[in-house]
Write a structure and sequence with these properties.
Radius of gyration: 22 Å
Strand order of the largest sheet: 1-2-3
Structural class: alpha+beta
Order of helices and strands: EEEHHHHHEEHHHHHHEEEHHH
Number of strands: 8
Helix content: 40-55%
Number of helices: 14
Distance between the termini: 14 Å
Shape: globular
């Protein structure tokens, strides 16, 4: 920040910045452990500074920003189509949710509503994205507890979900399939069959995996009581998604601000009150089951909408004056907020997409305190915050 503030018109002459001032931790026998920003796995960059007494973490401080790409500057004076592509790349694992948030904000700015066919397809893509990410996270948490069997089986199910997405929408992550005004590609005919097949596979193979998770004492010993987030902190930071719901928060944007087809779908919002790694895993488990129910309902409804249009021209409402719109969408991590201002020319003036990780990264520092160093990977993966979504 000492060099250049965001969206500055011109950059001042470079100056020498002082070293990053990590918070001090004082006491007998304390030592520091530095982790990152380069990690052993193929993951995004972030630095973690632990102050440790023996094996107990006294303080954790995160330093982020390594994935900063100036996304808000890139949005300035772009056309809506390019802006939508940028939105899809704010955080790649949430590409559908980010795209829906941006699209709905643009549609709100122009005062239009996407066709019903497109809205139901958006909901289908969003739930497939949720299932794929939750399956990956459940397996990864177990893997960090050295229970690789769950990781392998969840990985297989996740891969089959992604292949079904490829068959139905032409892209494994469904990137750029949601656009302002609707969806970009028609739902491939055999895609419905592929999605039904993977949903049936999840119904068959997921329950035994959950039983295995719940009845493995060595695994429960690592997850139960580890990394507890209090209900007070969850409420203070408005923690969304599985992090907030594992600590008693009931907020879900699909309920509070129904988007896509969620006002016509039946589903529950699971909550738990323990706030530990185990509860965050269980929220994911329960949400996978709810997403399966939602997808069943969508697949039953979509054939009756196949003759409706997939998209509409949002700019048909006309240009000539400044417009603003906003939207709140439930991604797999939690609620995503989008705000956009469109200039008189119809090009993007300013845009902001807020990833749920903005409110979740600080809470990770809090839940790790008092746990042992070896439990940090469990806590971190149970949060699974986005570096890219936060750094922007």
């Amino acid at each position: 920040w000492a060099v250049r503030h965001p969206l500055a018109g011109t950059a001042p002459a470079p100056i020498t910045s002082p070293p990053y001032p990590f918070l001090a931790a004082e006491g007998d026998g304390l030592h520091k452990i530095s982790v990152g920003p380069v990690h052993a796995g193929i993951i995004e960059p972030g630095h973690f500074r632990f102050s440790v007494n023996g094996e107990t973490v006294v303080r954790l401080e995160e330093r982020l920003g390594y994935a900063h790409k100036g996304i808000e500057s890139l949005w300035v004076d772009t056309d809506i189509a390019r802006a939508a592509r940028l939105a899809a790349r704010v955080s790649g694992d949430s590409t559908v949710a980010m795209s829906v948030a941006f699209a709905r904000a643009v549609e709100a700015a122009f005062g239009v509503v996407a066709p019903a066919n497109a809205q139901w397809q958006r909901a289908l893509m969003a739930e497939l994205e949720r299932i794929a990410n939750h399956l990956g996270d459940i397996g990864a948490v177990c893997n960090d507890a050295s229970f690789s069997l769950m990781h392998a089986h969840c990985g297989v199910l996740r891969e089959h979900v992604l292949r079904a997405c490829q068959a139905a929408f032409g892209h494994r992550l469904m990137m750029d399939r949601v656009i302002p005004g609707g969806v970009a590609t028609e739902f491939v005919g055999r895609g419905a069959g592929e999605i039904r097949r993977i949903i049936d596979e999840i119904k068959l193979h997921f329950p035994p995996l959950i039983e295995l998770y719940d009845e493995t004492p060595s695994l429960q010993d690592r997850t139960v009581g580890t990394g507890i987030l209090s209900a007070t902190l969850a409420a203070q930071y408005a923690a969304g998604g599985y992090i907030g719901r594992a600590s008693g928060r009931t907020f879900d944007a699909r309920r509070a601000f129904p988007h896509a087809a969620y006002d016509a779908l039946e589903f529950d919002v699971p909550t738990r009150n323990g706030g530990d790694v185990n509860d965050r895993v269980w929220i994911r488990i329960l949400e996978v089951n709810e997403s399966v129910k939602i997808i069943d309902q969508i697949l039953d409804r979509l054939p009756g909408l196949c003759d409706e249009p997939l998209t509409m021209d949002v700019a048909a409402a006309g240009n000539g004056f400044v417009r603003e719109g906003m939207a709140v969408v439930e991604g797999f991590r939690g609620d995503i907020f989008a705000w956009v201002r469109i200039g008189e020319s119809g090009r993007i003036d300013r845009c902001h997409l807020r990833d749920p990780s903005w409110f979740q990264w600080p809470l990770l520092e809090a839940v790790v305190e008092g746990n042992i160093v070896a439990d940090f990977p469990l806590c971190n993966k149970s949060f699974n915050c986005s570096y890219s979504g936060h750094d922007g």
